[in-house]
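okkk here we go again. third time trying to get the zinc ion bound version out, last two times i messed up the smiles copy paste (missing a bracket lol). double checked this time i swear
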Amino acid sequence: MDEDSLLGRISRGQRLSVGCGSARSSVGELRCTLGTTMPPLSYMKDKITVVEDVLQPFQCAGVTLLPSRIADQVASVKAYYMGLHPNDILRGFRARKGDWAPGKELGGAYSESGLCFGQWLSGFARLYKSTGDPQVGERALYLMREWAKTIDQDGYFGYTDRGGDNQYLFDKYVCGLVDIYEFMECAEALEVLARITGYMERKCFDGETTDRNHEWYTLPENLYRAYLLTGDKRYFDFAKRFEYTEYWDAFANEEDPFGILPPPEKREGFHAYSHVNTFSSAAMAYAATGERKYLDTVVNAYNWLKETQLYATGGYGPEENLVVPDGLPDSLIDIKRNHSDVDLRFHFETSCGSWAAFKMAKYLMRFTGQAHYGDWIERLMYNGVGALSPMNEYGMIQYGSNYSVFGAQKMRSTVWFCCQGSLLQNIGDYSSLIFFKDEENLYVNLFLPAKVHWKHSQGEVIVEQETSFPEESTVRLKIQCASSQYFGLRFRVPGWSNGVVQVQINGEAYSVDTVAGQWATLQRNWDTTSVVELQFDMSIRGEPLTSYLSPVAVLSGPVVLAKASVRSGHHGGIPVESALRYPADWLDIESEVRLNRFRQLHYDQELRPLYDIRRGEFYQLYHTRHGEESLCADSFEYSGDWKTNSFCRYTASANATCEIKFEGAAICLEGIRGEDGGMADIYIDSEHKDTMDQFAYTRARMPRYDQSSVPFRWSIDGLSMGEHTVRIVAKGQKGDRATGSIIRLSGAKVYKLRKY
Ligand SMILES: [Zn+2]
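finally!!
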């Protein structure tokens, strides 16, 4: 059965109007339904601003999504969640209180802890703000009020008798209440927030519980938001208590974060989603204090994630772990295809991971004004949460995405878990990721059909994006002003574009600086109506995994293409007939190319956007670079004092030398890092190229993905075709942190061709 129609059926069958006002009430009337506890909107007087935003988001308001695949996802997710019966959602809270509890248990993790409840309050509040749909707003308020009735005298707020009040769950409730306060201007949310915070304060300060437990390091974000929105110092003090100082400082000081882990026998690592989400806590610590070190943490963490953790999709966290140095390529081999077994095998916790990334990137754009953070948002919009297959009627979601070089599938798993909460938050927040503003400029971050209404110092402007990008290469921005106005229209020049963007204004070519990863500025006196046309180069290209030679993903613009069997009568929509740059060589695909279709020799396959792959279809996202040849360490020539074990050749002696002769344009040296790893000089054809350092902390060990063995990789590309010699000379020296000076070599990979 078609999944979309199934979603439609549920929403039609189960949708109901609950609550506190007429389904047709306007925003103003909705506020009135809040009753006597709702003070006038003067509550904003207590709002605190410590750090001025360089760029301001249109926080879920003033932006309308126009028809597109993204808007379709918003509509279908909205219908799905509005189709959930509030009695089912509230059943556990009411039963615990001993109240009448009609409805049925939703099941899964929700029945154990009410896991997504706070996230749903947040998602409905954001979705209400972005769509203006009063039914959505009523749902948020009804759920909050009915839940509030079940909160105990002492402030206990959980879904079940026990365990419903850990810091992980508390954070989700705080987020939901702060969002209802901020986006629905509902002061009642503050009363509830004060009650549950009082309960948690007593629990933490009185030592009834371990002070910090269960993803506590994501708490400061929403507590600092509560402080900034209300001026109430209690939230500042409570947030401060949960700062993740040793982890944040590692980034602020540009140190290796794996150094803060205990020894491997403690079996700890960095849980990926929460260790990215905590950077949003650092961002709000910056907003609340203005202390530079917090911003340094977030900026440096972003660079570190980009250089060491991110796949082409923007996803991260194989088996929910941040990866050790040079560990990323192995993750695409170690974690294989999901054969629909119960064991979760994936590379990215897709919905929650996208949510953490969207927030972090948006904070960075707000506080620095820089465009390149928008690249990450764009990748995830198309290849992360935007590429999820739909949920089923039992609340099962595609929890993770798999990128294995051996092929993968989109599979559903987990019933009513965290990702079912963040999905609603994500789609409620989409419209706040598209445009930004400052006093004099309107910024276009994402290229997708949407309309923005911008009020600035000179007047009001409406900009409408007309495009089916990324399935076409042209984006038209229709600008309407009541009278001619002077302002800047800025658009993000995507990192993937190499700075190549053709610009026309009202049909005439317009010369403007377009630097990849920066804003391009069209500053002029705008007539009452103008059309700006942007033309991108959407040629298919290969993109290696971060700094490695292989494997390689295939992209068109920001869209990652998957190799999959031909979907009859369907074309994924990416125009690949023009300027086919590399794939014929390195993908081993026959040169015959039809519209959006590659025919392979042995069976029909095509490249289709990952977002176009349906649940259960086999696909391959990463590909080994063409012409790869493996050399083992035994085939190298050694001089000096080298020893052998079953994994590698190793030495600690100064001037011990290893020579590798190879034919090819690129080579990747492979070894093993250690806390006793030392340094060596690398020469290519007698020319000194680099000094390698094989130190790494070897402490990351989690039950599902042991990374206590840390690989080493060093590579060079673009050599002349022909024979080359690499010479590695151990220095017998160690870096500051190392306990030894050992060099370990396990082999090399050689690539014959200069291109991918
Ligand atoms: Zn999740």
